Amino acid sequence: MALLSVIIPVYNTEKYLPRCLDSVINQTLREIEILCVDDGSTDSSPSVLQDYARRDPRIRVIRKENGGLVSARKAGIQEAKGTYIGYVDSDDWIEPEMYEKLYERAVRDQADMVSSGYFFQGNYITTHYDGVPEGLYGPDKMDFLRENGIYNIKTTDVGIRGSLCCKIFLTETFRKVQMDIPEEISMSEDKLCIISCLLGCNRVTVWKKAFYHYMIHQESMVHTPDTRYLLKVNEVYQYMIKLYAHPLFTKNMRLQAELYITELLYKGINSRLGFQHENLFWIDPYWLREIPSGAKVALYGGGELGHVYERQL
């Protein structure tokens, strides 16, 4: 039995797929199964998958009609045999020791989830970690983690980073979480999984160590208006409402969930809906409070965002 199942949803990523697969098959943790879910690709991705599957018996290719990321992940997790589960997006790549290190932490701490950081990689590289203190959160600390899972209000930072790809999950805990996410949800699906998972976890390990390379490609950046953006936000909100009924979902968790929905609405108004004037409702709630009244301020940069900050000041 595999110690860990790696699920890789694939849709038209022929250009980046070999690098992704190479990084997974070369993991120092050898006892893994690699479930590549071809979500109806129309490029040469299926041929790439077949070629790698012939060379490495740990790779299994699952073919399905195009249904989106959530349906692809569901198809993978239904077939997973590993004790733990990890996800990799097919245009990203991972450090060779990632799964060995995360698995060792999971076994040592008997954790339902181990969360680590990631590198955000495009024209330059930034490193991102969870905004809560690292360490093991057992039953006596899970309330804190749940109530700071979306935002760490005290430090005005994120709580647990939303990406599933820099984490591993105990399969028996996470399978139902993944299967409960509606397939029509096409934004914030990772964040919803994390919130749901925290409600069912007894032990979570947070580790401020980065292994995952999240790649930013110019062709994948959003350039066209999304006129369905508000409908997509509503689908996220409707799922949040269902979570409110969970006995462990507290008032503070609801406040954080509603702040998160509000943030999505701000983002839509500012840049996603295709309004003629962008940044109509730019809200950055934290930085102004750090500036003492009457202080001298130097704004570096005279672009659109610089003018927005000038108006806020």
Short characterization:
The chain is an alpha/beta fold and 313 residues long. The chain is 38% helix and 20% strand.
Molecular structure report:
The protein has 313 residues and is an alpha/beta fold. The chain contains 10 helices and 12 strands. Helix 2 links the parallel strand 2 and strand 3. Helix 6 crosses helix 7. The longest helix is centred in the C-terminal third of the chain and has 22 residues. It starts with a strand and ends with a helix.
| Percent helix range | 25-40%
First-last Cα distance: 59 Å
What average pLDDT do the residues reach? Answer: 92
Radius of gyration: 20 Å
List segments where confidence is low: pLDDT < 50 over at least 5 consecutive residues.
none
Major beta sheet, specifics? Answer: 10 strands, mixed
**Class computed from helices, strands and strand pairing:** alpha/beta
Instruction: Give the total of beta strands.
Output: 12
Beta-strand share of residues: 15-25%
Order of helices and strands: EHEHEHEEHEEEHEEEHHEHHH
What is the 3D shape? globular
**Number of H- or I-type helical stretches:** 10
Key traits:
313 residues, alpha/beta, 10-stranded mixed β-sheet, two-stranded antiparallel sheet, 10 helices
